[in-house]
């Protein structure tokens, strides 16, 4: 990246000054080394986002940012409801992709004794890969009920407990969902996919708590050194992708009639208060509920596997949070509270201590922020901090961020070699696609430890625990 276009405001804070059509500046949170891993397209896309109508304060990019569709991945932008827009490109195709973390109460030695058996049982029980299908079949009535009810619907259907809902963003059900705004094709694509990981960078990973970085917060989160946890990373599958595809197309066509001049057609958007904007929000919220239900069903399947080996295992849910969303939230702008529509694309909500939407047990320390690695690399649990509200509308990074394209990764690695190398380090990979493993090779991503540290130094979130992989079921 050309650093000459940026003004360094602090060790991990860079400003892209207002120029041309920009309504607000861009703010990039990263160390100089991480900035160096970003291509110039990140600056271009940040500048374009800052030029959208109704944007408030700044267009933000997180330490894991890289080039995306319209918005950079790792992008955050908030819009006021009167003149602002909602952008399908600002949410992305994998609507409500997110991570949930389960605490097992087991120690790493417990898992090492049956590691291969656990890996095999998870692989058999957790459908993964392109076009993967689950055991559930949703008829039209059940589909609409799931899209309206999210994880709360899944729990009512027997896939979990009511206690899970208190630890899920929006308590497991996104208000304002409109199944009637979801096309028949999108619903058809989801009919057999509930309870599946999908492909790409999605995974279910068994991990060990390798290090506690904030023992007080870790205690509040119920995390202990050497405890085994399970991370589930996936989203709304084909339904979300279809919604993104259809509404992006419609927004591009309708832009002129709404008086919108798009700096990039990939930034397709509609006024929040327009009929199109409202329909998209209704469909996007339904896809959010789909993702929450999907991760809930996968949790139920994971619990079954663990209990087949450890009958007393509970797998309590620590937290579930999405990182591809647009949320209506109240934030402080210029000293007063204001309702905003906050787009987070490849960025995680990170409410600080005392936020009213957090469960009572988490109020003293802040929201868990779950930062995923890539098969052979570390993952992190962070927490929301008080400074995050002013820094980025209470948003943080979501993972390591790609350092190279999937095509470049395929040129460099073979999936079989990656699996063998990780097995030599005690990490077992199970995947239906060796091509997919090569595309997601650990070295295709940035250093997740550097990303997490940069988020902490920038005042976005604070590190709590470091996790190491043991078993990964990869899509």
Count of domains: 1
Q: Summarize the main sheet.
A: 8 strands, mixed
CATH topology: tRNA-splicing ligase RtcB
Query: Class, according to the CATH hierarchy?
Result: Alpha Beta
Oligomerization state: single chain
Structural class: alpha+beta
Observed structural traits:
tRNA-splicing ligase RtcB, 475 residues, single chain, 7-stranded mixed beta sheet, alpha+beta, 8-stranded mixed beta sheet
How would you portray this structure in words?
- The protein has helices spanning 32-37, 40-49, 108-112, 115-125, 140-156, 162-165, 184-190, 215-221, 237-254, 275-309, 388-392, 406-412, 415-424, 434-439, 448-457, and strands at residues 7-10, 13-16, 26-29, 59-66, 73-79, 85-87, 98-107, 203-212, 227-234, 269-271, 316-322, 324-333, 336-345, 348-349, 368-371, 379-384, 395-396, 428-430, 461-474.
- It is of the alpha+beta class and 475 residues long.
- It has a single domain, classed as tRNA-splicing ligase RtcB.
- The strands form four sheets. Strands 7, 8, 9, 11, 15, 16, 18 and 19 form an eight-stranded mixed β-sheet that branches. A seven-stranded mixed β-sheet has the order 1-2-3-4-5-13-12, with helices on both faces. The protein has a two-stranded antiparallel sheet with strand order 6-10.
- A hairpin with a 2-residue loop joins strand 12 (324-333) and strand 13 (336-345).
- Helix 7 (184-190) runs antiparallel to helix 9.
- The longest helix is centred in the middle third of the chain and has 35 residues, at 275-309.
- The radius of gyration is 21 Å and the shape is globular.
């Amino acid at each position: 990246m050309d650093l000459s276009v940026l003004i360094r405001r602090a060790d991990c804070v860079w400003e892209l000054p207002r120029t041309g059509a920009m309504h607000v500046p861009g703010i990039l949170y990263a160390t100089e080394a991480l900035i160096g891993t970003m291509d110039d397209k990140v600056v271009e896309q940040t500048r374009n986002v800052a030029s959208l109508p109704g944007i408030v304060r700044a267009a933000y990019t997180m330490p894991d940012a890289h080039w995306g569709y319209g918005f950079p991945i790792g992008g955050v932008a908030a819009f006021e409801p009167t003149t602002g827009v909602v952008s399908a490109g600002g949410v992305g195709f994998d609507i409500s992709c997110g991570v949930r973390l389960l605490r097992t109460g087991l120690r790493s030695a417990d898992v090492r004794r049956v590691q291969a058996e656990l890996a095999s049982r998870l692989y058999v029980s957790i459908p993964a890969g392109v076009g993967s299908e689950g055991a559930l079949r949703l008829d039209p009535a059940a589909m609409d009920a799931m899209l309206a009810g999210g994880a709360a619907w899944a729990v009512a259907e027997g896939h979990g407990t009511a206690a899970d809902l208190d630890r899920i963003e929006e308590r497991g059900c996104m208000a304002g969902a409109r199944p009637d705004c979801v096309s028949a094709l999108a619903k058809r694509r989801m009919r057999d996919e509930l309870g599946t990981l999908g492909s790409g960078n999605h995974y279910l990973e068994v991990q060990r708590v390798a290090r506690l970085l904030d023992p007080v917060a870790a205690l509040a989160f119920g995390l202990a050194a050497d405890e085994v946890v399970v991370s589930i990373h996936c989203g709304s599958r084909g339904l979300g992708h279809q919604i993104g595809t259809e509404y992006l197309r419609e927004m591009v066509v309708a832009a002129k009639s709404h008086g919108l001049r798009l700096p990039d057609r990939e930034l397709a958007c509609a006024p929040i208060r327009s009929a199109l904007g409202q329909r998209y929000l209704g469909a996007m919220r339904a896809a959010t509920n789909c993702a929450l239900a999907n991760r809930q069903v996968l949790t139920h399947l994971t619990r079954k596997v663990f209990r087949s080996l450890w009958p007393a295992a509970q797998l309590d849910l620590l937290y579930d949070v999405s990182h591809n969303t647009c949320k209506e939230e109240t934030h402080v702008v210029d000293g007063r509270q204001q309702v905003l529509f906050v787009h987070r694309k490849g960025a995680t909500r990170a409410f600080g201590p005392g936020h009213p939407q957090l469960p009572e047990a988490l109020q003293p320390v802040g929201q868990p922020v779950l930062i995923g690695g890539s098969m052979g690399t570390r993952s992190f649990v962070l927490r929301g901090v008080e400074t995050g509200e002013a820094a980025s509308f209470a948003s943080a990074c979501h993972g390591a961020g790609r350092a190279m394209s999937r095509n470049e990764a395929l040129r460099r690695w073979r999936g079989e070699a990656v699996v063998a190398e990780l097995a030599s380090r005690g990490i077992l990979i199970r995947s239906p696609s060796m091509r997919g493993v090569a595309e997601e090779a650990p070295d295709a991503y940035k250093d997740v430890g550097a990303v997490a540290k940069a988020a902490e130094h920038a005042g976005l979130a604070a590190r709590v625990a470091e996790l190491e992989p043991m078993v990964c079921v990869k899509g």
